[in-house]
Amino acid sequence: MSKEFYLKHHTFHIKAIFVALKDIFEKNEYADKAIEKVMRANKYWDVRERSFVADVTYDIVRNWRLLVAASGVEIDTKLSDNKLWMIFGTYLVFDGYDLPESNYFKGLNEKKVISQLEKFHKVRKIRESIPDWLDKLGEKELGKDWDKTIRALNQRPTTVLRANSLKTNPRELQKTLEEEKITDASLITWSPDAVELKFPRNVFRTEAFHKGLFEVQDASSQMVSEFLGVQPGMRVVDGCAGAGGKTLHLAALMKNKGRIIALDVKEKKLLELKKRATRADVRIVETRFIDSSKVVKRLKDTADRLLLDVPCSGLGVLRRNPDSKWKLNMEEIERVKTIQRDILTNFSSITKVDGKMVYATCSILPSEGEEQVKWFLEQVGDSWNLAGEKRYSPEIHHADGFYMALLERKK
Questions:
Q1: DSSP H helical segments within 63-109, as ranges?
Q2: Residue 312 annotated among the catalytic residues of the structure
Q3: Which CATH class is domain 3-153?
Q4: What average pLDDT does range 5-20 have in this prediction?
């Protein structure tokens, strides 16, 4: 069924979207959590209904500043219900749909909205719906590339899977998904294990997922583990493992031979990693909760390979987390830059002499990528050298923005 059908015949879907938007913009909840809460309250919905509500909610969040400007609504201390309905109606006009017959949208002038949309389309920071400070920062760090980068980051993302090579391969996964009526899966040539789905859906309900045949992971994110160059039998440390997306990929690349120690400061994430490892049939991962500096110190000079996928601004994944641009600020970016340097300084000694380390961020900013690596190399002198670096750009690769540097320890 089309979006048009839902808009005309199912006002309860529109009300559900309204509830999610209230949570996001009035209660400051994360978009994914707000949408998840709406889904839990409507367990009887089918896949198409869920997709409709999620897609529209994310679209409104993604284009929030443009919609507010074109609606003529002034948001002061409180986002009233009436104002939110005006913004919602502006989105429907923006997306090319006739307004449903509803009291909610009374008072909204479609012609005026279209005129305002055309006017604000010429202003980048409003067209791409970003705060003033972010527009200035992006232009400062990326120069002429900023315009096309932020345009790409304001597009809908696709769903990308990583085929678990311990159990399958991308082509076999394609066939398996076809048996489950998922016929839009295609391969990504530059990311060896990646399978892309053209249309969004809840892949976590598939039998293939429960069998551990894949994980959801963007194509550029998958290239981080590839860049580390692991081999079966190695001793590897994942210093910022989180819930283990890259840890599991490393285990697959190592063919379940060797040892991976996964570290993180959040014990809950490591527990999730263990569950995912069981499903993926990964048997070489040991998790260690960083509850003191001793955990890292005990690992000094022990790793053939070290992965540092460090905390960052997340500006490379705005396609997936469009609400984060309204939750982020310069103070937070400066804070994570300090954390990045601390991690590089304190964790790098885990690597053996002649071993290698990858420093990675899901940020588009050189100040979180190239400049941090340059700073590190200045601190350590000739003890380390840069073996290579890569950037995956949203506008070029149609993927999340990632930076990665491969460093070799010489002394």
A1: 64-71, 81-94
A2: no
A3: mainly alpha
A4: 74
